[in-house]
Structures are given as C-alpha cells and as structure tokens.
Amino acid sequence: MADNNSVGWELLSILLPLFREQFIENQPRGTNEMEIECNDSTSTDSPRLIIRGYDGQIKGNLPPSPKLNRLRELSRSTGGPLERLDLMDVGLQCSECSNPITDRFGASSTSDLICWDCVDSNLAESDARGVTSTIDPTKAVLSSSALHHKNLCNYVINVATGCTHGCKFCYVPSTPNIKMRKDMLNEQVDVEDGQSEWGSYLLYRDDLPERLNRKLERKRTWDATPDGRGVVMISSGTDCYQDRRTAQITRGCVIELIKHKKPVRILTRSPAVVRDLDVFKSANGLVTVGSSIPSLDDNLVRSIEPGAPAPTTRLNALEKISNAGVPVYVSMSPTYPTQSRDDLRRLLKEFKTRLDPDVVFHEPINPRGGNFGMTVQAARDAGQIELANELEKLQDRDNWVEYSKNQLMTVRELGNELDVPIHLWPDKEFIKYAGEHKEFFKHEREKDDSPEDYPQPVPPA
Ligand code: SF4
Ligand SMILES: [Zn+2]
Fold this sequence. Notes:
This protein is α/β, with parallel strands linked by helices.
C-alpha cells in the first residue's frame, strides 16, 4: 500500500518530465540559427524533434524521421531568408535502419531520409516523364573551375548529376564529369550511354548544403583570379532550379555561401529561381542571377531545349529579380544561324528595357561535340525545318566560322548601339580559323575586365 510520500513522489515523477518538456519548448534560445533538438525526455519509444527558429520559438514538432522535403520546406517557410536548418547529426533517424543520421544522407523518391549505409539499397525510380532518379554518390562539394576564362567564376557547385532539361546541344554529357562516370551511371540509374540518354537521368546531392557548410568552415584559402574574382557558380553541369528537390539543395548552398561571404553566380533556365528572391535580396550584392535566353521565340527554343521552361518565362522571372534590386545578367546562348540582325537587336533591346543587366554574355551555337546531330534532328522533328537546315550547314567548317564571326561581330556592334554591356564568348576552336579577326576574338575571350561589379570574397580567417 502506498503512503502519502510515495504517492507524492509518483505524481511528481509523472508531472516533472511534462513540466520539463513544456519548459524546454517555451524557452527562447536567443541563438541566431534555426536548430533541431531531439526531445525524448518523456518517452524513449516516441521521441519528437523540436524545430526552433532563431527567435527561440518553436516552428515545428516532428517525428524523428520526417520527410526531407518537409524539413527543407519548413526551413524555407519559417526561418529568416538566411536561416537554414542543418540536418547532419541532430538526432534525425534513417527511415530504413532507424540509426541516427550522423554524417552523409540522401532521400528516397518519396523523400524518406536515408543514412549513407543504406544508400546502396535505395533503388532508382522512374517518373511519368521517363526520368530515372536516385541519390548521387559523388563526394564533390565545391570544385575549382576553369570557367574564370569566361569571366564566370573560380569555383562551381553542381547540385545534381544529369539534367532533365535535356538541351540537345548541351556540352555537359561530353565532359569527363559524365564520360568518366560510366560505371556509376550504369549501376545507379541503368544508363548505357550518358550522352544519348542525357535528359533522362538525375542524381541528387541532397546533403550538399550540410557538406558545404563543413567545407567552408574548414577552408583556409580561397582562389580569386582577376577574371574569376572568387565567384562560386551554381550550376555549370545541371540546372539548379529544375525541380523542387534541386531548388531546395540550391537554396541551402546559396545561404551557406552568403554566410561565408562568398560571391555567388546563379545560372538557370528555370523561372522557379524567383522562389529564392528573399535570399538574393538579403545577400548585399553578393549574388548575381542569370538565365540563358538565346531567343524569345518559345517554339523555336523548345525544339532543341525540350525539357526546359519557355524563354519568355525566364525573362519574366529575371525581370522580377532585377526589379527587386538584385544584380542580373543574361547568357544569350547559344544563338542560332536563323537569327537576323533585327532579331538580335530586338532581343537585346528587350534585355535592356526590362532587365538593365550588368552584362550579356553571348555565344553562337557550335556544331562540335557528339550531340550536334541530335540537335539538328530535334529541330527537324519539331517542325523547325529552317533551323534544322541552317544548323546542318554549320557542319561545314567554313560555314560555321563565317556564321560565328558575323554573329559575334553583330552582337558586339548592337551592344554599342544600344548601350548594353556585352561579353563575347568565341569558341576556342573557332578562334584558330578567325583569320584577320583572330587577335580581336582572342582578346574578347581572354579579357578580365568584365563590367560586372562584384564585391570581393572575404578571405578565410
Ligand atoms: S539546362 Fe544547361 S545543363 Fe541542363 S541540359 Fe540545358 S544546357 Fe545542359
Ligand atoms: Zn540507414
């Protein structure tokens, strides 16, 4: 039989954890980060994850293995623009083996969290578009880049391998990044030929923001050449806003770079980039946003960029970003041999009046790489016969050189006429055959005085 004292203790032992939980939940933390804590004080069978905002208030109360997209969305919708929930080693559990996620992780096609030990047993899934996707096993986080030669950056971050936009002329599948990873692509997404199947596979780097954070914390040196200026470009080998999952990874990476005071260049064909306008506005000029817009003829562009959103929607998105005071640029590439001087003038005028971009990079289409035949065929299949015929002619070297020279010169002249800062990207191979204009194009390619006004990166402490 229990006496009064033992009843009192029993009651206290029930109430104390409840009070404690209430107390913990209501305590403002005063930190300036969002964070997750695993609150298992009342029951080890059903621990809960408490999400706190930088103001210390509770923003969410979740089971220990919530969906990854829910966590990323919670981070976006409840935090400040530069807040980010870091998901590594905070008490999250693997949906497969229930072990805590202490290091790398990914997500299944239904967004269930998966620890790195269970990644191999996660099977690739195909969607209604015929795109097969899974988790990318690559270790790459922040890679040094030769794109400083194009005045773009010193570093690149790619949030995925593959790109569902599947542009027919895309040079990425002919780079070592795809060619040298033949076995991995075959094993992970059953791809036989990374080039001809380009557009039909996508491997996500879900934990990239977490790994980037740790990499930047450790990094003691930072490259900043005069032509690359320490900029990090997202992305050069995929489209960083092609779907919600890549957009969530991109947002986390941009926030990490801004927090570490690194200049960022976004390049995308997706209007979904506007979803991160709050982040760009908070970056104090550290972020510039650009889109590839070769023409505003949606049907023409769609014929060889079959999976990408229409270029008119890209322009609308960039206009919103520009109107918000964020620096923007245009990659007017690759332009087509069917575009006349008047077409190009109209396009540049549109950029000038609607965007007032810091710079317009220009590159004519190049008939090099294993996929040019596919580009011609895609235009023909889409009924763009004139485009297909003109592209076909570029397979003759003299035609290609003549076309490139004329279009590059025309864009340069129109830039002067319309007061649009132009940066030409003549192809390296083309320069060899540019005759009397060789030195001019060489200078255009190699110059390091881009009109973009970038803040310098802050060197690591
Ligand atoms: S959006 Fe860029 S990376 Fe993607 S397929 Fe097109 S050119 Fe290639
Ligand atoms: Zn696991």
